[in-house]
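#data-curation
PF: Archiving a pair of folding outputs for the training set. Convention for this channel: one message per protein, sequence first, structure tokens after, nothing in between. First:
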Amino acid sequence: MSFKSSARTLSRLALIPLLALSLSGCQTVKGWFGKDEPETETLPVEALYQEARDSRDGGNYSRAETYYTRLIGRFPFGPYTEQSQLDLAYAQYKQGKHEDATSTLDRFIRTYPTHPAIDYAYYLRALNGFDRDSFFLQRVARADMSSRDLSKVQASFESFAELLRRYPASRYAGDSRQRMVYLRNFLARHEINTGLYYYRREAFVSSINRAKYLLETYPQSEFEADAVALLAASYTELGQDTLAADSKRVLEMNYPQHPYLQGDWPKGNNLWGQLNPFGGGR
């Protein structure tokens, strides 16, 4: 071996202790075999929770999820673990991991039914379902097709209703009621759109059934007037003049400005009711 080669080798060897010192301050240390030994495996529960909380508050939800998950795995009992499950669900929710968030919350609700923050668990579960479908709601809000699966929207509505039923005095009750109004009007709009779909295809019995269902299931919704107008129009097409006249009279008494009374509905595509986008948040 030449002198230069030996010198280079010695230089590299001399750098190893310095490199080891420089890595000693890092959060993750490489083991002898190149495997990571993250601090999540060594920190005490208090420090581990603080790291997770700081990551969450800083918007690093992926890192927060990692730390919360390891805390729960290493310390399966205690107040830090209980709170970490709620915080983990929130971090998953913020990342759009809706199924994971729902599973975490369901497990929390089953395990800690008397927890002081149990109402928040119900609220976050409902909110998780609401936000999961927010893009879907925007896309189909003006749709008039009869075939739509709104089971998730209905499930979100029922989740908010469950929160209000169980904890009517919860700090999240007011926001939940507003979201329920939004969802209720959305579901009513779906019914009137479907009724119009049938009407345009001269399936008048089906359009009547949709209008009746809307009036019975979503009374006082923003689309109540449209449902009454659709009844009048459909009964007229079927030659049931008495029922058509009764529906029209109800419409004149309660909604005298409805376009149907001016002969401009439902020929047009515009609905009389308007679905106001929900504003606000947590």
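PF: Second:
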Amino acid sequence: MSPATSLIEVRNFSFAIRDKQILKEISLDVRQGEYCTIVGPNGAGKTTLIKCLNRILRGGTGVIRIAGKALQAYSQRELARLISYVPQANGLIAPFSVYEFVMMGRYPYSSPFSPANAEDKRAVREALELTGTEALAGQALGTLSGGERQKVLIAAALVQGAGILLLDEPTTFLDPRHVWEIHRLLLTLHRERRCTIVSVSHDINAAALISERIVALKQGTVAFSGRTEAFMNQETLEHIYEKSFVFMKHPGTGKTIVVPEGVV
């Protein structure tokens, strides 16, 4: 992958918290309009990496570039117009209605304490409609289910108008119906709006079914980076997860999916 075509470039990036090395010499690229999923065992550094991409975590050594420009060269407002971030929805209890919370996502375009203008209101209305949360607009965040909160978080990210969407395990703790709804929403954003999506996930099968590329971390290093179909093989998965898998074809798509050996 040529750096000239990469929207996100990471070169020899390392990051430590106190004396613990979390990421070690990470290099990867994400093209504009690509759907990339970051997978790997617990403690591999997945969440740390995605937070470094959005400068939630600052520091480290090496280089991160967004749209060809060094990450540290952006102001916070400039960066927020390029990248939006969706954290896990568990524990989101804030004293705001859904509408108020989503409107806060317009902060890159407004001055402190300035009233919402027509464009702000249009963006919020469109995000609520797209995520299917318009009926929840007047409800307090604390009254929502996990799946509803996750869709509201995505709506708040969408109103930023950013072309890059980073998500940290967006379907964790959700029931199957809401998992399906979140995946369908993300695919819509990717295919119809050409959002560049980078998502952290523990679900190997979901990553294989919906993403174009997979980056797998193990002990803070890149153990695999490439097309999804190249990832789904015994040698690669056993190296990353230290566990054998049984492979089968998805009955609907024909794509390869897995279960751990011994389950079937």
